[in-house]
From TrEMBL:
GO molecular function: fatty acyl-CoA hydrolase activity
Keywords: Hydrolase
Highest taxon in the source lineage: Bacteria
SUPFAM superfamilies: Thioesterase/thiol ester dehydrase-isomerase (SSF54637)
Name of the protein in its database record: Thioesterase domain-containing protein
Pfam families linked to this entry: 4HBT_2
Keyword Nucleus recorded: no
Keyword Hydrolase found: yes
Family in the record: Belongs to the 4-hydroxybenzoyl-CoA thioesterase family.
Amino acid sequence: MRKRGLIGAEVEIRVPFFDVDSIHVVWHGHYVKYLEQARCELLDLLGHNYDAMRASGYAWPVIDLHLRYAQPAQFGQRLTVRAELVEWENRLKINYLILDSATGTRLTRATTEQVAVSIETREMQLASPAVFVEAVERKLQALEATA
């Protein structure tokens, strides 16, 4: 299992007021929303986002989510959320880091796992659909060509 991803993307988020609690720290449930934004950026980079997944006949539900909080994010803070693809052959596993954009201080570490499910039959796939694996392989080849 890879710890570092071969393909990664990041987004910057400024913590809005409606994401914080009464002491101006981000409520723990909102971190999942930040991960989703970085995951969408990563899938766009692959050229196989959620619209393409649906069009290919598969949904990709999250089946596992782990969050490790190191420090709280606060109202107005600029965050960098990094998503790195670490597994794709049998499932979609993504590692995340949420950092303070100004200092690079790690605030949160996370991992999600998703599996392909046929939209038509509702059956979980034991291997990632070829259309998704091919999208990852194309991106890896493009990255190698520019390295």
